[in-house]
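Course assignment 3, question 2. Fill in each field.
Student: A.L.
Task: Predict the tertiary structure for the chain below.
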Amino acid sequence: MTPRLIQKTDGSWPRLRHLIGAEVVGVGWRSTGRVLVIELQPPDSAVETLLISLPWVFASCLMSIASSEITTEGKDATDTLQDLIGLDGARLTGIESDQESLDLIFDSIRISVSSDQ
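Answer field:
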């Protein structure tokens, strides 16, 4: 399946409700920049890849990381990816959106994507 870019287009966020309940089976970086890649396995269909575009914020009860705070080269990116690995095995439990942001909610983790490009 073609990766789905998560950004606001023509005033609307992409439809993702069908992914609620899907399990995270992979997390990584897109080689072209600080685009976060999340692979989700829905219970009854093929793996879907989400490309989380800038700007985004990863937040859990222990930490918060903004895309503007990291680099994609060297130790910082590797360390940050290790922190995000905590997403592996998490389930997408909800999606919230408004005009300014779209939030993907995984167990105790939230990834917020801003409409500011």
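Instructor remarks: Strands lie at 4-6, 23-29, 36-41, 48-52, 56-60, 64-66, 92-97, 101-106, 109-114. The chain has one helix and nine strands.
Grade: pending
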